[in-house]
Amino acid sequence: MVGGGSSSSFWTCPLENANAPGRVHAVTQNFTRAWPTRALEGASHRFIQDAEKAPPSNPLHRLFSLRLNSHQRATHISQPLPSPPIVRDVLVRLLFLEHCCVINKSKAKLVEDKSSTKEDDTREARLSRLIDSPSLDVESLRKLCWAGIPSHMRPTLWRILSGYLPANVDRRPGVMTRRRAEYHSFVEQHYGARSDASNKQMLHQIQVDILRTTPTSIFSQEVVKEIFERLLFVFHVRHPGTGYVQGMNDLAVPFFSVFISSYNPEDIESTRMSAIPRANLAEIEADTYFCFCNLVDMIQDYFTPDRHGLQRQVHALEDIMGRINPPLNEHLSTHGVTYLQFAFRWMNCLLMRELPLKAIIRLWDTYLSEGDSFTTLHLYTSAALLLSMSEGLLACKDLSEIMIFVQSLPTESWGEREVAELLAEAYRLKFSFHEAQKHFT
Asked: How confident is the model at residue 122 (pLDDT cuts 50, 70, 90)?
């Protein structure tokens, strides 16, 4: 569940009474406690469009009708609701509408709910209290961070969510000092061996990958190249089970970018490293290393020689898309496109090459909040991304056009709103497939 939330209150609601307006409101009120509100922005807009356009044969039309008050909020379901899997999807959609935003129909665009600023202020205050509490409630923190983290809090919260800093506030300074010293001892111990004959090939691979790393505005700076060469080489030496694998460089980028954002929070990509004292860069390097290591530890089977974990994720994505969009799967197959040709990178680099950095950082707020289970959400996020691009893919006429499209997705302008909608769709798919397998078998 989201950020460790539970849906037990949802399932215990008496479904036979769900057609009563009060019960619908109670169900959605109970269920929303497990849902991060801002993560669902945009999905309500899609819900209204679906409801308005649904033909009589569509379950959305056939199963229920919505009555909307002047604020465009769902208040009543006039038909009894059927089996639990379908009820769940209906109420999830209802939740999108009930708790996220309103539609300004005259302008035909999504606008934020008038209470969103107050909710954000309250959430930020709660985050502040949690961070400063003597012993932090990590599960409560994950729930609050799932919907996004205020930029000025992100460096600290990512260190905590990654397992680098402890929950106990009094222990954090000592742990940070000790671990930074530990990392620099690793550098002294191992980095000098980078020129050894046995390490030359791997060092070359790391250097080549760093040249390909984006955003270029950051990674064209020599000091950043040096930082990444050190931390990736040290990782290679200290993790002989997997060593460094091509693409790992991308997984360190969000951590490094967030940690340097303390010096330029408005525009990370324009940050000049020469303006940051060397001592502070050394601290950021150490913190990036440990957070990166903790992330890779969670997906070790992605980097084994047979890449078993990645293969499993790619095949799962193909299976999901075959269920939710058979024409797209057929189109890809007809033109000789396999999922491994494009989705391997999506899994290997966690969409780092598919979305701009600002979108990735927002996405990783949620991934880090998911903890060990983030790979499941990533699978459905990839499905939601592919689903959102299906129209463009179906318009491609051959293998070459398809590959060009999937390797350069039109996401360069994406920001927090687009990621919120992507995550909303991903969670809806996860809710329908991963947690309701029997319904689809």
From this structure: confident
CA 106, 111, 116, 118 dihedral sign is negative
What's the pTM?
0.75
Q: H-type helices in 215-325, by residue range?
A: 216-219, 222-238, 248-260, 278-298, 308-324
Give the mean model confidence (pLDDT) for residues 58-84: 36
8 A C-beta contact, residue 74 and residue 97? yes
**How far does Cα 280 stand from its chain's mean position?**
28
Instruction: Give the mean model confidence (pLDDT) for residues 169-190.
Output: 97
Rounded Cα distance between 316 and 312, Å, is 6
| 3-state DSSP assignment of residue 94 | helix
3-state secondary structure 23-76: HHHHHHHHHHCCCCHHHHCCHHHHHHHHHHHCCCCCHHHHHCCEEECCCCCEEE
Q: Is 423 in contact with 382 (CB distance < 8 Å)?
A: no
**Backbone conformation region of residue 58, classed left if phi is above 0, alpha if psi is from -120 to 50, else beta:** beta
Residue with tokens 């324009």: 270
What is the pLDDT confidence band of residue 133, given thresholds at 50, 70 and 90? confident
